[in-house]
Prior knowledge:
Elements lengths: L2 E7 L4 E7 L1 H11 L3 H18 L8 E8 L5 E7 L3 E6 L10 E8 L6 E6 L5 H13 L3 E10 L2 E12 L5 H11 L5 H17 L9 E4 L2 E2 L5 H8 L4 H11 L2 E5 L4 E5 L1 H7 L3
Amino acid sequence: xxxxxxxxxxxxxxxxxxxxxxxxxxxxxxxxxxxxxxxxxxxxxxxxxxxxxxxxxxxxxxxxxxxxxxxxxxxxxxxxxxxxxxxxxxxxxxxxxxxxxxxxxxxxxxxxxxxxxxxxxxxxxxxxxxxxxxxxxxxxxxxxxxxxxxxxxxxxxxxxxxxxxxxxxxxxxxxxxxxxxxxxxxxxxxxxxxxxxxxxxxxxxxxxxxxxxxxxxxxxxxxxxxxxxxxxxxxxxxxxxxxxxxxxxxxxxxxxxxxxxxxxxxxxxxxxxxx
Length: 275
């Protein structure tokens, strides 16, 4: 089961997120038929998207992370919403590695204009790149340690720990958090050994106030549907859509996130434009 724990620790000066996303990564592997390298990269970004989705305040909030790797290396894209429905895909041409390029984050919390931040990738490690993003684009000191462990084509552990300093954090509490983060140098191994429940019990017990630890259950789930896809194609107009059906037999729309194809025949198009 996927889990996200959120709490404030060390005098409520540091935001803590503990994640277990093993099932989510295996669901993504099943949807996309990922090799191990691609599963590690996509799984790491899905875990990051889960953390960021857990920070959204508004019910209509959403966040997406897109990696444009250097040269012809390809693209990785993940997104999530306030309901912690997380989804993503990886372009096979990148070989599962983040070889240079940029990370772009689009965050819409439903209140104002969507926030867009971009940073240059600093290596192949997902954790380092997310820390770089928060430092450069949002100016928030963030410690990220997430990882994915594969065995025989299956994800056996995924998740990790994220801590963010809140305004006014004391030097003493900064030092405590930094020291504790050293326990998560190999986050996937820690998740494999303890799971999210065990991490909370063995590393963070007593650090949050009673009743202020919140538990969520994220899942790999796409928000596409045939109805939504209809809304995408209708702006093309009846004549253009009918022309496509004449040339190609039907109008096809592919969702990269869940690997689903939607097909609309001439009869379907006529129904869409029926007065």
